[in-house]
Write a structure and sequence with these properties.
The complex is a heterodimer of chains A (about 475) and B (about 240). With about 475 residues, chain A is of the alpha+beta class. Chain A has 11 helices and 12 strands. In chain B, about 40% of the residues lie in helices and about 20% in strands. With about 240 residues, chain B is of the alpha/beta class. Classes of the chains: A alpha+beta (about 475), B alpha/beta (about 240).
Chain lengths: ~475, ~240
Amino acid sequence: MNTRSLRFQLIAWYAGLLAGCFALIGAATYLVLQTSLVGALKENQLRRVRQICQLVLEEAPRDGEGRVSEQIEARYAPGLNDRFVRVTRSDGSVLYRSGPPKGRAFDPAELPALVWPARSETARQVALGAGRKMLVIARDVQMPGGASYLVEAGAPMDEVQAHLRQWLIFLLAGLPVVALVAIGGGSFLMKRAFLAVDKIAASAERISSQNLSERLPIAQSGDELERLSIALNHMVDRLDQAFQYSRRFVADASHELRTPLTVLRGELESFVQEPQMPPEWRERLGSALEEVERLASIVEGLFAISRLDTGEAQAEWVRFDLAQLAASTADQMYLLAEDKRIELTCAASKGVWINGDRARLKQVVVNLLDNAIKYTPEGGAVMVTVSAIDSKAVLEVADNGVGIPRESLPRIFDRFFRVDKARSREQGGAGLGLSIVKSICAAHHGRVEASSAPGQGSRFRVELPLAAPSMNNQKQYDHEH
Amino acid sequence: MWRSARFNPSVVYISIMRLLLIEDERKVADFVARGLRAERFAVDVAADGPAALQMLAACAYDLIILDLMLPGLSGSEILKRIRRDRNEVPVLILTARDAMAEKVAHFEAGADDYLTKPFAFAELLVRVKALLRRGPVNRSSLLLVGDLELDRLTQQVKRAGKRIELTAKEYALLEYLVANAGRVFSRTMIIEHVWDQSFEGLTNIVDVYVRHLRAKVDDPFPIKLIHTVRGVGYSVSDSPDT
């Protein structure tokens, strides 16, 4: 999962937020619950303490201390109710202490005495061991005779603690459930929302400089995504216009350059062939003519590329054998290689059928071979191979020449790009050969790529879609019968 | 001016051919007309459509060279009118546009040939003469330049009576140059005729073949027949300097 994707981040954020809120609310309810339960318990004990104080105040002077104990036992029966009551004299001796509770939840004798004198109505929690606690409220009673008693009433907090524990368990169990539900629901909603985004991304991916007339499908959803696709389409419109403008510009420019070039060439040619022309002048004019020729070939190359890129040049599509084309072209260029003592070999398995403009694809082979021969030193080797791999026709031109520097490799198909400016111009190239190759491949729904080990050679690989095999079978069938 | 004509032994003009050049670019019109006149053609120049139509009505031409981009009346419109009047005069179209579809459309409209700017004058001349076929083109099977003999039927080449063995491409190149002896051909023209358009821009292939050809045809002999004209191309003639 891509942790940087918007989808992941949104889900993580919402699930985290929801879990955080749940934890916060849980903690708050826990505290409120605790306060109210403890408060209620405290209130009960306080009431009892006050009643006993009243009892002590009324009974002790009249009937004696013994009567007080009886009355407490009779009225409140703390042992039976799991409650604790203790009345202590000011000298620390115990007047009354409730008996052991029915459930033996605590031992009244072991509860530590409050340090005398206690402040009035103090509440304290006494640990009973094993995490259990007891709430004890204390209050002192001043008798008219000057004596004083401390009355304590307490109850174990087991019930309160049990309630709180249950609530805590509920909260802790609920938190992951809430988080899971948030993640699940979130990804479902996100998936729905982002499905549209994925669709837009996939469509946008398909639009390249070759099919700028295509547009993204617009879902009439009225949401932000509709606006996004409309905005993207407008951007593609502008790109399309810019591309069209630049192509038209190249086409117009090369068109406009042709007439002056014609005049220049015609006038210079007539001068060069003038019989009275001194040889030195003829040389100079010839040199000028060579430049005119180069200018003309650049203009032609640019025009060819712009026509290929606009799709104007796809007139003559036929079905033919790429292997046969490569073999015959290599044959025609054999002398060019031999002239540099380069060994030119062609390994083409027969019957690699493709659909396309034969003349254009021949130009691909010619340009790649010319390039390979040009950049391979004397005595080197150039190899052409054609094969059908999967559903692709693959043409490879490999040489063991100077190779292409790593930093130049990505730009090798750019117009006018030359690895070594001075050297290449001397060899007469305009720097358009490989961009023409690229444009032709693109116009045939194929591609071309270059790889190279500097100093060891280069390899150009052209991939084109194979023609449908059914016709091919038909042909073989016809051959056999 | 265009001295090449002087060296072509096969050129025999029976009568003066009259050409109409319809071209609005004055400078292009100038050098084309000058070159054609040097080749002893009578050339009239029309700078726009209406003028061209007037001239067509006034005179019978042997050939029309027509630029497509014209003010007033487009070249294709003129071509349509010529053919509508059942005028069968050969029409060679000059244009700066060369989209394949357009080319086909013009051939269908009755154009006989098509030349894209910038063209070499030599090529225009070859095409003009090819369209006029009726005179200057050598149709015989035996071609002669100096002591060089080419037999088009057997594809055999002899010099000073000695047989020279050539490869098919070398023969094609030599035949192209010898058949138009004295004329200078650009590398582009040679590529288009001897190879095909896929090799355009690959001018060094011509140089390599010419070098091989020279080794066989010229090197063993004192008089050189294959000449290089710097900036233009190659020619075959028995004149010592070109």
